Amino acid sequence: MRLTRPLRRLSPAERRLWDAYPTGAWVDLRSGDPAADDPGNGADWGPERTVRAEVIAALLLGAREAEPGSTPGLRLAGARITGDLDLSDATVGAKLHLLNCHLRGTVDLSDARTQGLRFRGCVLGRVRAARSTVDGLLEFDGSCLRGLRMDNAHVTGQFRLGRAQVSPPGEEDIARATFKEDVRKPYSEAERRERGLDDGRRWAVWAGGLVVDGGAFLRGLRTTGGLRLVGAKFHGGLYLQEASITATAAGGPATGGSAADGSAADDLASGEAPVAYAVYGDFLEASAVEFSAGFTAAGTVRLRGARVNGVLSFHRAAVRASGRALHLSHMQVDELILTAAEIEGGVNLGYSRIGVLLDRLASYPDQVQLNGLTYEALRGPWTVAERLAWVCRDPDGYRPQPYEQLAAWYRRIGHEPDARRVLLAKQRGHRGTLRPTGRFWGRLLDVAVGYGYRPWLAGLWATVLLAAGTTVFAAVPPVKIDPEHVRTFSSFVYTLDLLVPVSVFEQRAAWEPVGWTRWLAWTLIASGWVLATALIAGAARVLRPPNTA
Question: Could you tell me which of 170, 56, 173 has the C-alpha nearest to residue 119?
Fold first, then answer.
């Protein structure tokens, strides 16, 4: 490819770069003084370290041919690059590697297909790479960016954003956008937000639909603004250890809901306040996701409908938000490690399917939504009482499914007494939703036989009642109903016959209690029916197949 028009006269720095490109040799313009070479001070660098962005673009687009036997490439260190680096819609066959460079213009890679791109320790303006394809490594390690847009991009190698600092694009960056609107069908306000045309200031990284074949390494990342990763796929995993993400709303940094946007449409539909998202990753897919080892987020981490074919870890993480801190509903995860150092705000695990859940009580806030959650195994230093307190934290009140799932887990590992204890707690929780008559009957069953899950209570009550009746009727014996019928009275047998719902010993019809003992006889008869009913219910639960809750 040849340039259609020649470049203006090259400066000495540009001439060095021009001559080095055919062999891919490094051009290092740094002075050797770390303070002077800091790209944060690059705006003050003189013409001896200045290179026009159009010269770089011209070289990458074929202004010079490769030398025979060499691989061309552009490797530049310590330069102040002026203007915008526009490679949009291009096919770039050489690699670009910038080190400690200062480029405050826009880097536009939209719809481009490139080889590996490396921006290490640079100060950059806005980077636009929507729908681009990078065949190899895409790296921004240690760089400062004003917004990174990579929606529907594809990186065949690794994506590296470690120790980088990313902020949302500024007003001038948004004003310089080249988007042209169809006057016949202008976008609605909601459509503009959904496309990031009016709400780009909320997001430091806008990467919905991004596909990364290698690992995405964002360790130590610092952002003011959220990460929008809706539908992104990280085949080699997503790693954000020690990253710090601070969500922003329309007016600036925030730790909770204060600005509406299209990404919060479901929250608005449900009547909830708009949310400031630190990570918005609905339907994200990854082989592993690490929000661990010092990861911090000021704002909601949302992974609704995500699928992680490995470990999703929040070990030693800190997530703070007003409202919901972790929105992890409808997920499919092989293993969830929820041993965070701090979670300030609610947690939603509803309707997720988890293989192994490793957690601890101290990691959970006061509000935890568990309705619909299923898991194959639980790990962690929990007691049964702590697990019961865990399933009781739903802000919407009593839900039977979390109890049933927990009981099924205990039965699956052979802890039948613990399963019965959980199901007893379920019945007690359900009692609070009943009318007064139902609550009274439920409390009676609870005291009598623990809703059938403690059948030994029936034996205890029967023993107490039998002893009381035997003692009373021995002291105040009943009178014989038919004086001519010869019978021998036994207070023990008489009391037992009253307790049994159906008369077995034919003592009720032969003897009539007298005075106040009639009340005792009626109490024994009623108690016998209650105990028998509860024992039948308890036997049905105990004999139920162990694979049902």
Answer: 56
